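Weekly puzzle thread! Below is a chain. First person to post its structure in token form gets bragging rights.
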Amino acid sequence: MNRMNKKLYLGIYAASFAVFLVFGIISVLMLVFQHEISQSVGMRNAEKVFGIVFLFTAFAAIQFSVTYLVYTILILAKMWGAINDGFARTTPGTAIGLLFIPFFNIYWNFQVWSGFTKDYDAFVDRYKLPVAYLGSAAFSIYPLFIVLSAVPFLGIGFAVANLFVFYRII
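Winning reply:
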């Protein structure tokens, strides 16, 4: 059986987020103290430093976005693969593939995440497994926050909150 090493995945996820957070904080501090930095090192040198730091911040954001996307797809594949006995509403490939269809993915996002708890609990009942049922709260909030993260201005708050909801799911 192909088992998932949660500590490894959480470590990669946390390290990726930490790199993004550190460069984000440095960028914000540089914006706040832009005038003081320009006076101490000179305007020309300050522009070079600002450019380099913001470039690294952009790379940090991109690497975290890619890590988060890959990690989410990996988790979905493992989740749906674990209960793929012919009775689940979808296969791992379909669960992931339909998320890439524009507009339909809004609906499918809810089916893949909150629908998993129903299929998982049915799987547990079918095979009379001695494991606990899944709580559906985090699995219902996660897709909702994904959709709400697209709302201008408020979206960043939902996106950040969703990082912690995702941690609860895994």
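Puzzle host: Confirmed. Bonus trivia for everyone else. The chain has two domains: 1-82, 85-170.
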